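Entry, Tuesday afternoon. Goal for today is a structural model of the target with pyridoxal-5'-phosphate bound, before we commit to ordering more compound. Inputs were pasted exactly as handed over by J.K., no edits. I checked the ligand SMILES twice against the vendor sheet because last time a stereocentre got dropped in transcription.
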Amino acid sequence: MERAHNFSAGPALLPQKVVRQAQQDLWSYGDSGIGIAECSHRSAMFDAVIQSAKQRIARLLQLDDDQSILFLQGGARTQFYMWPMNVLGGGTAAYLDTGRWADLAVKDAQRYGEVAVPFSSQQTGWDRVPEAGAVEVPDGSIYLHYTSNNTVAGTEFSHVPESGSAWLACDMSSNFLSRPVDGSRFDFIYAGAQKNVGPSGVTVVVVRKRVFDRIDASLPGMLRYDTLAAKDSMLNTPCTFGIYVIESVCRWIEEDMGGLAGIEAHNIAQSGRVYDLIDGSDFWKGKVEVGSRSRMNITFTTGDDALDTTFHTSAAEAGLSGLKGHRSVGGLRASLYNAQTDASVDALVDFMGHFERTHG
Ligand SMILES: Cc1ncc(COP(=O)(O)O)c(C=O)c1O
């Protein structure tokens, strides 16, 4: 069967090569005769997969030896509370409020200490991120947390904020491994895999070992980064299939796409085509400030709710799926994560052009 043009915000499209290989590996991984989802997480076969996944992530993000890579469950939202539960201990943390996910992370952090919000774009409908150098982290903050890409509003940081003496923590869920980032600058990174690097059910976490000293020893092992790291993410049974797919996607980024520089060029080119169309039209309107635009989630509208609905429903009928905006903001959204194909971007641009000619 032919595949649809899939613009889903997540779980999202995976690289075709990875999906094809997974079809075979589900049946038998290599010549083992055992499917990749059917082998023990303690087996040599799976150990090779998880170690390779970690090595590839470490290489792509230029991590150093003081950083542990974990594959956890419970989604990115579990990290909203787990990180402050581990390290905040009644202290103060600074959060950049750039929208829905940052906002939810703030609410969870408030359970474990004080939260300062040195930047919020709530007043302007979360249409922007702060400019480089514009944020002042309050003295005494234990960490600065930000969301590098707001999946809902369609904004993205193009810089890494300065955190001063505070630790730097980032929710990279929706632009993970989509552009070069010096991961060694971070004390904590987390990313639900289901947008750029895998299926749902696994969250990549990078945590600096120096934070382990602050962890409250009374927490259960499953909720402590130090115990999870000591057992190499296998204190319980991890999401083995998800980790396998992450390894395959990272292999594809490194070997087929030219690493993060290559994937960034691919993402700039694809998103640029849609933004150029929006900018060259009086019919389509972008929803966020130009300097804060996301390469991953392009949010746009006709300015008329009913017409937006006609657009995404007729697009779905024409085989372009997932263009409806997030339920909290409405409008339209095209997600162009790492695996998005040029053929689907062609189809989107053609369909938008056709829709403008027939409804403009
Ligand atoms: C930036 C961001 N953070 C967190 C989440 C929540 O992720 P999960 O559903 O894995 O908990 C999402 C989901 O879309 C997201 O886009």
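The mean pLDDT is 97.
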